[in-house]
Design brief:
CATH topology of the largest domain: Rossmann fold
Mean pLDDT: 88
CATH class of the largest domain: Alpha Beta
CATH architecture of the largest domain: 3-Layer(aba) Sandwich
Shape: globular
Radius of gyration: 18 Å
Strand order of the largest sheet: 1-6-5-2
Order of helices and strands: HHHEHHEHHEHEEHE
Structural class: alpha/beta
Helix content: 25-40%
Number of helices: 9
Largest sheet: 4 strands, parallel
Low-confidence stretches: none
Number of domains: 2
Length: 241
C-alpha cells in the first residue's frame, strides 16, 4: 500500500471514530448503507425490455411499447441493477449525488458488478456518463465516474474518463418530459479521439429513465469507431410522461 493510500485510510478511520458513519436509509450507525437496507434493495432480475431495460408487466412481450415505436437508435442495450422507486436505493443515490457521500460508490458498485455478471455483459472498457465542466465544477465530482472507477477495480477492466466529453451544458433531465429529454441531449456529446476504436464499451450512470442520455453518448462513441456500446445504470426509474 502506498504512503498516500495509507494516509487516506488512516484519516478515514480517524474520521469514522469522531463522526461514526450512519446508514443513509435507516440512519442506524455503523455503515453508510447497512446490511439490512442493502437486502431491501429491489434488484432487476426479469420482466424487462430486452433493448432499453424498462421494467415490464409479467407476461408482457420482450420489448416495451416505446422500443416498438421509437427505439433508441445507437446504443446496443441498457440494463440496470435495481428499481429506483424502491427504497433504500433511491436514498443512497440521492446521498451520493447531492450530499457528497464518497464512501457509497464502493458499496453501490458491488450491485453494478453483480448486475454485469447477471446479465452476461461483456466489455473491454468502462466509461462514465460525463458531466459538463460547469456542472462538475458546481458539484465537485461526477458520481458516475466514482461508480465507474470502483466497478473497474472489481471487474479488472480499464476505466476511460477522457475520451467522451459533454460539449453542451444541458438542462437537468429529471425536470423534462420524456420527449424533451431526447432533444435536450441530442448531439451533446463528442468522442475526442480514436482510442476506443473497435472496442466494446460499457457506459455507467447512476439512474436511467428514458435512456436518452446513454443513447446520445453511444451515438458519439460509434462515430469514433467504437464496436459496441451497452449501458449499465445503478437504478432504473419509471418514465412518467
Amino acid at each position: 500500500m502506498s504512503v498516500s493510500n495509507l494516509f487516506k485510510k488512516s484519516s478515514q478511520l480517524f474520521l469514522d471514530v469522531i463522526f461514526p458513519p450512519y446508514c443513509v436509509s435507516c440512519r442506524t450507525t455503523g455503515q453508510w448503507l447497512c446490511e439490512n437496507c442493502l437486502n431491501l434493495i429491489s434488484l432487476v432480475t426479469n420482466s424487462f425490455c430486452q433493448h432499453c431495460g424498462t421494467p415490464l408487466s409479467t407476461g408482457h412481450a420482450d420489448r416495451c411499447q416505446r422500443c416498438c415505436t421509437q427505439p433508441l437508435k445507437s446504443i446496443d442495450g441498457i440494463r440496470a441493477a435495481a428499481h429506483f422507486e424502491k427504497n433504500p436505493i433511491r436514498e443512497a443515490i440521492h446521498a451520493l449525488k447531492y450530499e457528497n457521500h464518497r464512501a457509497l460508490p464502493g458499496i453501490l458498485s458491488q450491485l453494478l458488478a453483480e448486475a454485469y455478471q447477471r446479465f452476461g455483459l461483456k466489455a473491454d472498457t468502462i466509461l462514465p456518463i460525463p458531466l459538463h465542466h460547469l456542472r462538475h465544477k458546481e458539484r465537485g465530482y461526477n458520481q458516475s465516474e466514482l461508480l465507474a472507477r470502483e466497478l473497474g477495480q472489481k471487474l479488472g477492466l480499464p476505466v476511460n474518463c477522457r475520451s467522451l466529453k459533454r460539449t453542451r451544458h444541458t438542462k437537468v433531465q429529471v425536470d423534462l418530459p420524456a420527449v424533451e429529454r431526447y432533444q435536450n441531449v441530442a448531439e451533446a456529446f463528442v468522442c475526442s479521439d480514436r482510442e476506443l476504436s473497435d472496442q466494446r464499451v460499457l457506459l455507467i450512470d447512476d439512474v436511467c429513465t428514458t435512456g436518452a442520455t446513454m443513447d446520445a453518448c453511444a451515438a458519439a462513441l460509434k462515430l469514433a469507431g467504437v464496436k459496441s456500446v451497452w449501458g449499465l445504470a445503478l437504478a432504473r426509474a419509471s418514465i412518467s410522461s
